[in-house]
Design a protein that fits this description.
single chain; about 400 residues; alpha/beta; Aspartate Aminotransferase, domain 1; Aspartate Aminotransferase, domain 2; 7-stranded mixed beta sheet; 13 helices; globular
């Protein structure tokens, strides 16, 4: 069976050039980058090259990039690090949105349990954060605002530059989770006006377990990990040299191919959407169709449980995602769709399709060909009529 991978927002295949570089690094650059001898300095040079590549991908300087274990750690470091640094100032208010990744939402909840005041800015069915809603949520004691650059489930791109200006006007710092945009669309942290930005290598054809946090020069954070003076005393622990080297290569590849890839994938995504909406009754796109990252669509299938559709598609060779967490065999509603105000059935009948390098028109056309039969079969198990 030919298998088609349509879950690139979850993770991407590692590029062959990245694998080659990581293997060579594991074999040849085994020195500890903190060591002053020849072997250590070679490893340090490998990290420096990768740091420059990651900085170039997001429009920052190499000195502002701190390597982490991935997007979750980067989000934690940004939020907890700023919160602890600003706690003595009396600014004890944090603002985020209801559609953030769990790495942000659960970190905010944890700080809330420690006495921080937390405000979650709501969204409507567009899944786009309103600048007016953020303005209303701000106060004079707001320390940090965190808004993702693009949503991982819906793909909508947030007006981060405008939101950051609102935060700065009230004296607050601004963090953006750019995990779903870095490597897909141009990201320039200076043009966005943010203070911190999280990225993750495995979202743009790099290895898992390595990410970075961009920290605007001069900004003080309290380290989450304490120990040695690694990463300029910002993140203790011997660096993952091979992973960092792989991330650097992935950043270079993404930067070189981004414009062409984005144009091709947006056409392919539109073909998928139009084909599904035409071939399958009772389907609708979730969220605003613009602006979105070019590879992502989230489609609601009325009278179909998303988990059942996901499994049926997997049996036909298609890997997709519900965008929901499955725990103990119970499908939990998507917190993003729920926050957008959709009814309960809509939060549990939606599938995310996220395209990537290897996907073709033939893949999309085959998906469109098999979907109607699968959906009709699943719907036959219920007696509820399809909603218009």
């Amino acid at each position: 069976m030919q298998r088609v991978y349509l879950d690139h927002n979850a993770t991407t295949p590692v590029a062959p050039e990245v694998v080659d570089r990581m293997i060579a690094t594991l074999r040849d650059e085994f020195g500890n980058p903190s060591s002053v001898h020849h072997f250590g300095q070679r490893a340090k040079a490998t990290i420096d090259d990768a740091r420059s590549a990651v900085a170039a991908l997001i429009g920052g300087d190499a000195s502002e990039v701190v390597f982490t274990s991935g997007g979750t750690e980067s989000d934690n470091f940004a939020i907890r690090g700023i919160a602890e640094a600003l706690e003595p100032t009396g600014r004890r208010h944090l603002v985020t949105t209801t559609i953030e990744h769990e790495a942000v939402l659960n970190t905010f909840k944890a700080l809330g349990r420690r006495g921080w005041k937390i405000t979650l800015v709501p969204v409507d069915q567009s899944a786009i954060v309103s600048p007016a809603a953020l303005e209303a949520a701000m106060s004079d004691d707001t320390a940090l605002v965190s808004v993702m650059h693009a949503n991982n489930e819906i793909g909508t791109i947030q007006p981060v530059a405008e939101l950051a200006r609102i935060a700065k006007a009230r004296g607050a710092l601004f963090h953006t989770d750019a995990v779903q945009t870095a490597g897909k669309i141009p990201v320039n942290v200076r043009a966005l006006g943010v203070d911190l930005a999280s990225v993750s290598a495995h979202k743009f054809y790099g290895p898992k377990g390595i990410g970075a946090l961009w920290i605007r020069r001069g900004l003080r954070l309290v380290p989450v990990l304490t120990g040695g003076k690694h990463e300029r005393s910002r993140r203790a622990g011997t660096e993952n040299v091979a992973g960092i080297a792989g991330m650097g290569v992935a950043a270079q590849l993404a930067r070189a191919a981004m414009t062409e890839d984005a144009a091709r994938l947006s056409v392919l995504r539109d073909r998928l959407e139009e084909g599904v909406l035409r071939a399958v009754p009772g389907t609708v796109i979730n969220g605003s169709r613009t602006p979105r990252v070019p590879n992502t669509t989230n489609i609601s299938f009325d009278r179909v449980e998303a988990e059942s559709l996901l499994i049926a598609l997997d049996l036909q060779g298609f890997a997709v995602s519900t965008g929901s967490a499955c725990s103990s065999g119970t499908l939990e509603p998507s917190h993003v769709l729920k926050a957008m105000g959709f009814p309960s059935h809509r939060t549990q009948n939606s599938i995310r399709f996220s395209l990537g390098h290897a996907n073709t028109e033939a893949d999309v056309d085959r998906l469109i060909a098999v979907l109607p039969g699968i959906v009709e079969k699943l719907r036959s198990l219920t007696r509820t009529p399809v909603r218009a």
